[in-house]
Structures are given as C-alpha cells and as structure tokens.
Specification:
The protein is α/β, with parallel strands linked by helices and 417 residues long. It has helices at 20-29, 46-56, 96-103, 122-130, 161-171, 187-198, 231-244, 260-269, 307-314, 335-340, 371-382, 394-399, 403-409, and strands spanning 2-5, 13-15, 36-40, 61-65, 68-72, 105-109, 133-137, 141-146, 153-156, 177-181, 202-205, 211-214, 222-226, 248-252, 273-277, 280-284, 289-290, 293-295, 317-324, 344-349, 352-357, 361-362, 365-367, 384-385, 387-391, 413-416. It binds uridine-diphosphate-2(N-acetylglucosaminyl) butyric acid. Residues 20-21, 24, 91, 114, 118-124, 158, 160-163, 184, 188, 304-305, 327-328, 371-372, 399 line the site of uridine-diphosphate-2(N-acetylglucosaminyl) butyric acid (EPU).
Length: 417
C-alpha cells in the first residue's frame, strides 16, 4: 500500500524511463533470433521482470547492467516451460507468434493482466489462421496447431496494438509478402519495427495504417537496440506537475511529438507547456483550470492509457468535463474510488462520464483498479487533504519504473507501507 500525504509542492526535474509497451514486444521478438541481443533503456518493472521469467523458462538467459539488458537466445526449448506463468500478464499474448515459429503448436492459458474490459483476441487468432495455424479456444486455454503457409497474404490487425505486433513477428520470417491492413501505429509498434529492421527484417510502413513485410530467410544474430522512452509515463508526470509543481518541472525524454493530442488538451484546460528542444518539456503549475472534453482513441489521438490520470486534473477544473473512453469499457470503473475522495462524477454508461469541478478532494483508502487508474489515485492523494492510502499497488509497479522514488525525489510525501 502507498501512504500519500497531499499538498506538497514539487520541484526538480525528472527523466522518463523506457516504455513497458515497447520493451515487451521487443522481448517477444528476441525469440525469433538465435544469438546475443543488447537492449538499452529497458525499464525494471513488474511486467518486464515477469516476461523475462517466462522467456527464461524457454531457455533465454539474461542479465541487467543498469537499464541495459543482455540476452542470449541461442538455445530455446519448451521442456521447462510452465504455461501457467502466461496468466500473470496480458502481454504474454505476444508469445503466440514466436512460440508457434519454433514449436509449430502450443496450448496456453488465457493471458491475465489489468481488468479494463473484454479485451478480445480475435484479430490475433484470425491473422494466425490466415497464415496456416488453426485454433481451438475454450474457457481456459488457447490451442493452436498448423504450419506456416508461404505466398502473398493480406491480414487485418483491427487497429489492435498487440495484434499488430504479433502479426508482424509471425510474418518476418514467412516466405512471401504480408500486407497487414488496419495496423496500429503506436510509438511502441514503430519501436518493434525498428528492432526487427535492425535485425535485417524487411518491413515497410504505408501512410494509411498498412504494414508490408517481405519475408526473409533469417535474422541477424547480434543486435544492439534502444527501447523508446515511455510517453505514457511522461503524460502521467505532466498531469502531476500541472497540479503539484511549486513553479515548473522539466521532463527529459518527454516524447513531446507522440503526446501532441494529449498536450493539446492540457493546454486547452489551461496548463502552460513549453517544448524546450532535445525532447525536454517544461510543465508549469496551473492555478486555474477549465473544463474540457476528451475522447480516447488509437494513436495519434488521446491515449486511453493516460485517461485516468487526466480525469484527476479534470476534477480540479472549473465546470463540467466530459470523458469518452472509446477503447475499453472497464476504464471508468475507477471513478468510484474518486467518489470515495469526494470527487463529483456522473457515470453515464461504461464508456462515458462527466466530471464536475472544481472539487476539493479529501483523503480516503482507495484501490487501484488497474495500472493507470492506480497512478491516478496516487495523483488524487497528492492533491487531497490528509493521508490517502492506495492499495493494490502491484498494478502500479507493473508499469511505472520507480514511480514513488521519482516523486519523492521531487519532495512528494509518499511512502510504501
Ligand atoms: N480489439 C479487438 N480484437 C482484438 C484485439 C483488440 O476487438 O483481437 C479491440 C479491443 O477490444 C480494444 C481495442 O481493440 O477496444 C484496443 O485493444 P488493443 O488490442 O490495442 O489493446 P492491447 O494490444 O491488448 C495495448 C497496450 C495497452 C493499451 C492498449 C491500447 C501493450 C502490452 N498493451 O493493449 O496498455 O491500453 O494497447 O493502446 O501494449 C497499459 O499499458 O496500461 C495497457 C493496458
């Protein structure tokens, strides 16, 4: 549990860590390579450590030196693989493509993770079926068997992030041309493509969400690559600085361009944000905020993963703000926690809510409904009177590297108890 004491004024600067959602697909893709891989800027967070534990059961060895991760993927086999580990994190769905590549058939339980909605995987399975793998799905597990077809094939990723990533990984070594329609183009998808290109995969990106892959026979076996910094962590900190900075706080590796739609909404609400160059962003404390409307959507629109932190900012804005969470029907559930702190909200349906402000928040014991909503409750605690207790913090630690350490370094009063 975190104990958060509110109304501390923060000052200093912060550096953004490597992105969870970029590191995980790159780790999955390392399984296509038999050799030695060096990855820089890897965040040491719960989901990455769990993912490493899973792939170490398939034979991968690894060691960290700071944020640099050295992996050896030379010897892979399934003899010691405990498929139950898959249940621990949703991102283990990314193992479908590399496991099929080596072992031709797999039987794994449904991946677990944050409970933010239904999270179907039809785009993954239908894509794999089109390239030669049949599947049977029951309540507990997914069984896939088959063998890879050659030739030119068109697939539909349905704008899903991990479905696009799985389909890319499944096709880089497939003989023929693969055209992936309705691809996600989030920065982490681009980072995966960059990694595979560094290993000599042939991948082109068209302007209209189309990715074209020309299968190659093998990938380079010694690679060094940088994981991109986390634009979601950066956006989360922008909200915190707008609410809690003494004057202003600078963010290094801020991913300004990737966050443009989000930053536009912060500015519309009255937050002063300066882009200082070299990817440093200065966020000023906002003393008067006004209500805004947001709608989450696929990149480059407002990211669903920073919707809940932004809602805390809305609770401090004058007027009625509206949230439309398009992607996940569970991502407004956390509003019941905000109500425990005397936040004033109206949930219109699973995808839409109104936030009434400006509402002074009071401390309470609240829980993390998911990773991002957990971070949102810490932010709520930082602007509430008294001590707020945030439980279920393992969600937060799955995805934010040293979240509390970074905040306390800037004089926030937060303790893990
Ligand atoms: N969808 C389908 N069918 C599919 C796949 C997705 O209908 O086969 C729909 C989903 O229902 C949802 C939408 O597509 O409405 C987006 O889901 P997506 O597949 O893109 O989500 P994901 O790949 O499971 C990744 C991130 C999430 C992030 C979403 C959206 C990783 C490991 N996870 O999930 O990150 O919210 O994309 O950007 O990259 C987080 O970091 O807190 C997190 C949950």
């Amino acid at each position: 549990m975190y104990s958060v004491n509110g109304w501390k004024e923060l000052s200093g600067k912060v550096k953004i860590s490597g992105s969870k959602n970029a590191a995980l697909p790159v780790l999955a893709a390392t399984l296509l390579i038999r050799g030695k891989i060096t990855l820089h800027n890897v965040p040491q967070i719960g989901d990455v450590l769990t993912f490493l534990e899973i792939i170490s059961q398939i034979g991968v060895t690894y060691r960290f030196e700071g944020s640099t991760l050295f992996l050896d993927t030379t010897f892979l086999d399934l003899a010691n693989f405990n498929a139950d580990m898959i249940k621990k994190i949703r991102a283990s769905i990314l193992l479908l493509a590399p496991l099929l590549h080596y072992f031709g058939n797999i039987s794994i339980p449904f991946p677990g993770g944050c409970s933010i909605g239904k999270r179907p995987i039809d785009a993954h399975l239908n894509g794999l079926k089109s390239i030669g793998y049949d599947y049977i799905v029951d309540e507990e597990k997914i069984q896939i068997t088959g063998s890879l077809l050659s030739g030119n094939i068109e697939l539909n990723a349905g704008f899903g992030v991990t479905s696009t990533e799985n389909l890319i990984v499944a096709n880089v070594l497939r003989p023929g041309i693969t055209t992936i329609q309705l691809s996600a183009i989030e920065p982490h998808v681009m980072n995966l493509i960059g990694f595979l290109r560094a290993a000599w995969a042939k991948i082109k990106i068209r302007y209209n969400h189309i990715i074209i892959i020309e299968g190659v026979e093998m990938l380079e076996n010694t690679i060094e690559y940088d994981v991109v910094s986390d634009y979601i962590e950066s956006g989360t900190f922008m909200v915190i600085w707008a609410l809690c900075a003494k004057e202003y706080i600078d963010i290094e590796n801020a991913r300004y361009d990737d966050l443009y739609a989000f930053i536009a909404k912060l500015r519309e609400a009255g937050v002063r944000i300066e882009h200082l160059g070299n990817d440093v962003v200065r966020v000023w404390r906002a003393h008067e905020l006004k209500a805004v409307e947001i709608q989450t959507n696929i990149f480059p629109w407002f990211p669903t993963d920073i919707q809940s932190p932004f809602v805390i900012l809305m609770s401090q804005a004058q007027g009625i703000s509206r949230v439309h969470e398009v992607l996940f029907e569970g991502r407004l559930n956390f509003l019941v926690e905000l109500e425990k702190m005397r936040g004033h909200v109206a949930i219109l349906n699973p995808h839409q809510a109104l936030i009434f402000g400006k509402t002074p928040l009071t401390s309470a014991q609240v829980t993390s409904w998911d990773l991002r909503a957990g971070a949102a409750m810490v932010i709520a605690g930082m602007i509430a009177t008294g001590e707020t207790k945030v439980t279920n913090i393992e969600y937060i630690e799955r995805g934010y590297e040293n979240f509390i350490g970074k905040l306390t370094k800037l004089w926030a009063d937060i303790k893990k108890v």
